[in-house]
């Protein structure tokens, strides 16, 4: 919803999943900061966070309140007394959900729908990596011989194979791929169930569903015959490629039947809009490392940035710039960007000094906007530090991307309907 001249206070509600740490927490902090100084005074922010436990939820809300107080204190230094006005514009509340437990996701959806409060933005942030360690010889060799590229596109991570998220019993038919469920399917169901709260009306633009992808969403990591990546040791990368496919093809005529059913809306003008973001390479807790190795990772990322990589915000607060921009930018700005230059995967990027900006990311088979012949010509596009397996988009690869998008949309909708029936039992 864009700013209104109406003097009455309007509420802009943003739900962030996985808000207790890393990128999720930083996204919430950045939402608070940017909302207060970019949105009109007649608008207030309701920041709704989700975590997996009550204790984490209480702790996260407390830390966000502390961040809010720091922001207000800084504002008072420049404009004495302004904090009293700004403080009334932020409300923080929490919900619990386990995205690997579909019944928990359904219960959250029902609670929010029953409350009936409009939802303006859903940020699908929560997720897991599914890694068990590193191939140390490969890691050391690639870092020493090709630091910048290997720190951006690591090939030395070792993932678990076949990890599942049981849904209440030991029946294999009632199990789903763990990384697939946490990163994609749990959010997919939640977005479907919350879609009625995100419709456009006379006073509101369509709601925004913002999916968090990754720079590591390689085309070769995804196997359409193994949607849940149960036989793959790259389940994380597969889940992010699946996310790219779903969002980037979500407004094509060829997927309209599936997306209309998913968003529970027959009128295309009323449906929530789906957007795609990634934070670049940040030092977060998604990779569970001992403290010494965590600092080594931090150092490696800074060196990659100093060597000229535009994909190393390092700080998760800087990494949140793309998803927060998609959350708060005027709807007309986003619509113009994606209508003119095509649907994009929006990335958080920094220069060598850490100055952040939002740019388009090149996606295998899609390019920067789904158009054959695109070039990195300065229009928010970068080819610097390009993955070496990346190829320019051709007519054939663009068609293959769309066909694959159609297929995964159909299969995800089939899976949704199957699990909705099971959850009703």
Automatic annotation (TrEMBL):
Matching InterPro entries: Ergosterol_Biosynth_ERG27, NAD(P)-bd_dom_sf
Taxonomic superkingdom: Eukaryota
A GO-annotated cellular component: lipid droplet
Key words of the record: Lipid biosynthesis, Lipid metabolism, NADP, Oxidoreductase, Steroid biosynthesis
Keyword NADP assigned: yes
Gene Ontology BP terms: ergosterol biosynthetic process
Gene3D superfamilies attached to this UniProt entry: NAD(P)-binding Rossmann-like Domain (3.40.50.720)
GO molecular function: 3-beta-hydroxysteroid 3-dehydrogenase (NADP+) activity
Matches recorded under PANTHER family: 3-KETO-STEROID REDUCTASE ERG27, DEHYDROGENASE
Assigned protein family: Belongs to the short-chain dehydrogenases/reductases (SDR) family. ERG27 subfamily.
Full protein name: NAD(P)-binding protein
Organism: Aureobasidium namibiae CBS 147.97
